[in-house]
């Protein structure tokens, strides 16, 4: 069996979770089912039609398309070699490299689709919310062709497990709720290498967010009463030079000491209008002296603000607990005369 045949024979096992998801998609809300069929049929080698005989036939057709591209490259390489009067072996080597690249790109996409299928298949209450909310709307939003084109271009080159997982989560969220990620955000993800990706994970792990449900009004890393532009966050891995890297990739805004009013997070009569989220937990601010914090007074939380793309990507990043920063944040609010108290029964 040739290298090409070995690689293409791997397509069906890779997309097994995609096929399983489609087989059990009847329980999913109609808008999500439509996006599942559209996205996976467009991107991966597994087909979304049944019976199994058709599945195998469609997968074979996709493999044939891939092999046809490789054979076309090979034929062109031989012709170019003759025209350039060089050893045909160079043309064969070049076509072999391009052929393997085409196969690897499709395998990468299939792996990402499989991860997305696993994410969608997980029991989630918000999937039912999507279905009920869409039923009340007159129009159903489908995942766009332009978005899928951009996603395919960026995801096909990702071979590392970490990046494939992130792209899989992006695809899953976009299938469940189109327009969750802008095309610009997808392109930013495609540009990330290991260092900015690691820095962004650190940033997200230290961030507090203000919002409701999937809507994020504000997301920032508080500079704890100091200025992040003067390295106040350096001991937590977010010194000035690292912030510059994140800003260059469009993940944070250029003002490293902007502020947002968090007065809505202050508890009044044991109720919090809008809790802040930190470390995947919702919190409220309880003043030691409530009279010091009337609704008209501002709580200016200064720090490093995530950009729109950064806020979109925040939801797919694995948060890592940082004990040192958590203690510093608690002490910062204590200095303001506030206690950071966990909020239960949050309605999102």
Structure description:
The chain is of the alpha+beta class and 348 residues long. It has 2 domains: 3-189, no CATH class; 194-342, no CATH class. Helix content is 54%, strand content 12%. The protein has 14 helices and 9 strands. The protein has a 7-stranded antiparallel beta sheet, sandwiched between helices. A two-stranded antiparallel sheet has the order 4-5. Strand 1 (208-212) and strand 2 (215-222) form a beta hairpin. It is globular and about 75 Å long.
Strand arrangement within the widest β-sheet reads: 3-8-2-1-6-7-9
Uncertain residue segments: 47-59, 128-138
Strand content: 5-15%
Q: What is the rounded Rg?
A: 25 Å
- Please trace the helix and strand order, writing H or E for each element: HHHHHHHHHHHEEHEEEEEEHHE
Helicity range: 40-55%
Instruction: Give the count of helical stretches.
Output: 14
Q: Mind describing the biggest β-sheet?
A: 7 strands, antiparallel
Shape estimate: globular
Oligomer: single chain
Number of strands: 9
Averaged pLDDT? 81
Counted up, domains total 2
Q: Given the helix and strand composition, which structural class is it?
A: alpha+beta
State the distance separating the first and last CA atoms: 54 Å
Question: What's the helix and strand layout?
Answer:
Elements (H helix, E strand, L loop, with lengths): L2 H6 L2 H4 L1 H8 L6 H14 L8 H33 L3 H34 L3 H12 L8 H11 L5 H16 L6 H9 L2 H13 L1 E5 L2 E8 L17 H9 L9 E4 L5 E2 L2 E2 L3 E3 L2 E7 L12 E6 L2 H7 L8 H13 L2 E5 L6
Antiparallel strand pairs: 1-2, 1-6, 2-8, 3-8, 4-5, 6-7, 7-9
Organism: Lusitaniella coriacea LEGE 07157
Protein name: DUF2806 domain-containing protein
């Amino acid at each position: 069996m040739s290298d090409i045949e070995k690689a293409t024979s791997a397509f069906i096992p890779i997309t097994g979770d995609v096929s399983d998801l489609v087989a059990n998609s009847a329980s999913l809300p109609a808008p999500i089912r439509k996006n599942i069929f559209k996205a996976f049929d467009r991107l991966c080698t597994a087909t979304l039609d049944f019976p199994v005989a058709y599945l195998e036939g469609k997968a074979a057709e996709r493999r044939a398309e891939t092999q046809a591209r490789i054979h076309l490259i090979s034929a062109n390489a031989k012709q170019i070699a003759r025209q350039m009067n060089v050893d045909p072996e160079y043309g064969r080597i070049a076509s072999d490299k391009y052929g393997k690249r085409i196969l690897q790109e499709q395998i990468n996409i299939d792996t990402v689709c499989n991860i997305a299928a696993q994410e969608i298949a997980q029991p989630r209450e918000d999937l039912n919310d999507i279905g009920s909310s869409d039923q009340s709307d007159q129009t159903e939003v489908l995942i766009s062709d332009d978005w899928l084109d951009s996603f395919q271009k960026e995801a096909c080159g990702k071979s590392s497990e970490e990046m494939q997982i992130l792209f899989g989560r992006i695809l899953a969220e976009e299938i469940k709720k189109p327009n969750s990620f802008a095309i610009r955000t997808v392109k930013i993800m495609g540009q990330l290498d290991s260092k900015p990706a690691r820095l962004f994970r650190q940033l997200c792990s230290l961030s507090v967010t203000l919002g409701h449900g999937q809507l994020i009004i504000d997301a920032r890393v508080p500079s704890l009463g100091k200025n992040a532009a003067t390295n106040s966050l350096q001991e937590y891995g977010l010194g000035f030079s690292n912030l510059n890297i994140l800003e260059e990739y469009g993940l944070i805004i250029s003002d490293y000491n902007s502020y947002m009013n968090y007065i809505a997070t202050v508890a009044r009569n044991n109720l919090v209008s809008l809790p802040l989220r930190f470390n995947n937990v919702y919190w409220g601010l309880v003043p030691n002296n409530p009279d010091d914090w009337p609704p008209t007074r501002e709580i200016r939380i200064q720090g490093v603000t995530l950009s729109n793309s950064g806020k979109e990507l925040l939801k797919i990043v694995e948060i890592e607990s940082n004990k040192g920063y958590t203690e510093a944040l608690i002490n910062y609010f204590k200095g303001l005369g506030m206690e950071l108290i966990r909020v239960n029964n949050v309605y999102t």
